[in-house]
Amino acid sequence: MSSYDETLRITTEILGKHLADGREIKPGDHIQNDLGLDSLGVMEVVADVEDRFNVTIPADALERIATVEDVARTLDRLRPAS
Asked: Does 38 participate in catalysis according to the annotation?
């Protein structure tokens, strides 16, 4: 499994904990429009993701994140190479 695939899997798990309906989360799902998270929910997810991956997502990067896949791509860029 590639680093990106693992990041996407973990990101999806974290998002799932913030959804009440237990629905399937797809990479192309828009975090607010498709998954229904409000701005507070998004910030809670960001905090959980930052804690899990030990990174800080810069404000300018947050503005460009809309989908589950965007989160994983951003994390992959921010994580130090192993």
From this structure: yes
* Catalytic entry in 38, 51, 60, 70: 38
Instruction: Report pLDDT digits (tens) over 8-67.
Output: 999 999 999 999 887 899 999 999 999 999 999 999 999 999 999 999 999 999 999 999
Name the pTM for this structure.
0.88
Helix (H, G, I), strand (E, B) or coil at 30: strand
Nearest to 72 by CA among 22, 19, 28: 28
What is the rounded distance in angstroms from the CA atom of residue 74 to the CA atom of residue 23? 23
